[in-house]
Amino acid sequence: MTAKPTLILGIESSCDETSAAVVADGRHVLSNIVASQDDLHAKFRGVVPEIASRAHLERINLIIDEALAAANVTLNDIDAVAAVNRPGLIGSLLIGFTAGKTIAWAANKPLIAVNHLCAHAYAAMMPVDDRPLPAVALIVSGGHTSLVYFRTPTDFEKIGQTQDDAAGEAFDKVASVLDLAYPGGPIIDRLAKTGNPRAVDFPRTWFGRESLDFSFSGLKTAVLYHVRGNHLDRPDSSHLRESQKADIAASFQAAVIDVLVKKTVRACRAKNANTVLVGGGVAANSGLRAAMAETCEKEGLRCLLADRKLCTDNAAMVAGLAATMFVPGHIDSLDLDVTST
Ligand code: KG4
Ligand code: ZN
Asked: What is the mean pLDDT of residues 112-135?
């Protein structure tokens, strides 16, 4: 007789995606429903926290019901409820975590509080059979650009982070300078494929030979000045030809990738780690995926990239990670709160 799989209901609402998922044994995604709020935040070209939390509140119950239905299970079949309680936007976190606590209490299931950063890193380990740890994780999204050393899926040390903008934020702002839609990352990714990455030599910030920190605000400003040239009265990029925009997108993306890849290798050397995990929205970038895989190969490092569908915020990575934390009898306290860091 085969053992019954451990089924975990995951809930994610740390930023602007409302998501619920059911995952079996930490690996098999039975459902992963993601309601994006991109349309609500597009005109502000960034996430507006108050709008995000209100939208989570409207959607969370429907999304959870949909995730259970799509997995063809009921709450009775679930072994534990996992919800993200940190880090993120407080108002957003509160909606998903409160929903998780309420369901756990009402259905008498254990609650597992999950760290969003650990979940992004876990997404990269999800498909492999072994536990590829210790490892250095590069977590790159709209809110984070961090190098994190993982000893276990939840025991980690942050060893580098951005001092200003996150990489995804830089993608979104550069897209705005080029008058492209929001979120800009996927659009720049596509446009960059048709441009020359060496057309413009945009600056890279290294902070010295040992540093594992990042900075993207100088790069973003360099793109702005390049687009406007000496005509600071020019409000937009309408004077540029499509091929010029593509060259700028490709050169900007190359500068971001250069720093991300080299600092990840630097972090592996510093921590004597042989495995690289890459997760977060920007990990979906085709240029970054190719460059990281190629460099790791040359450097003798194992490179695990989160599946593209599990790069941007989703609850499957939450339910997956929670399986590694699930010990029958252990229940996180319903008094637990959300925290922004
Ligand atoms: O992980 P995520 O969904 O949310 C946060 O936790 O922030 O990441 C969203 C970010 C956005 O900034 C978006 O532009 C970026 O990920 N992104 C990309 C790509 N797909 C999404 N950036 C570069 N290339 C992509 N293909
Ligand atoms: Zn995220």
From this structure: 95
Range of lowest pLDDT (93-97, 126-130, 203-207, 245-249) = 126-130
Q: Which ligand is nearest to the CA of 191?
A: 1
Helix (H, G, I), strand (E, B) or coil at 113: strand
Output the CA 169–ligand 1 centroid distance in Å. 8
Pairing of strands 145-150, 156-161: antiparallel
How confident is the model at residue 1, as a pLDDT? Answer: 54
CA of 143 to the centre of ligand 2 (A): 7
pLDDT, tens digit, 9 for 90 and up, residues 188-213: 999 999 999 999 999 999 999 999 99
* Nearest atom (ligand 1) to Cα of 17: 3
Tell me how crowded residue 138 is: count the other CB atoms within 10 A of its CB. 29
CA distance 186 to 171: 9
* Average pLDDT rounded to a whole number, residues 315-321: 98
Residue 156, amino acid: F
DSSP-derived letter for residue 3 is: P
Which of 144, 176, 260, 282 to mutate to test ligand 1, by most ligand atoms within 8 A of the CB atom? 282
Check if 88 has its Cβ closer than 6 Å to any atom of ligand 1. no
Closest CA to 204 of 193, 220, 189: 220
Query: How far does the centroid of ligand 1 lie from the alpha carbon of residue 82, in Å?
Result: 23
The predicted structure's pLDDT at residue 232 = 64
The predicted model gives 248-272 an average pLDDT of 98
- For residue 84, report the distance from its CA to the centre of ligand 1, in Å: 18
Strand stretches in the chain, DSSP E: 7-12, 17-24, 28-36, 80-86, 111-115, 135-140, 145-150, 156-161, 275-279, 302-305
Of all protein residues, the one whose alpha carbon is nearest to atom 8 of ligand 1 is 281
pTM of the model: 0.94
- d(Cα 289, Cα 280) in Å, to the nearest integer? 12
For 86, list phi and psi in degrees, rounded to 5: -175, 160
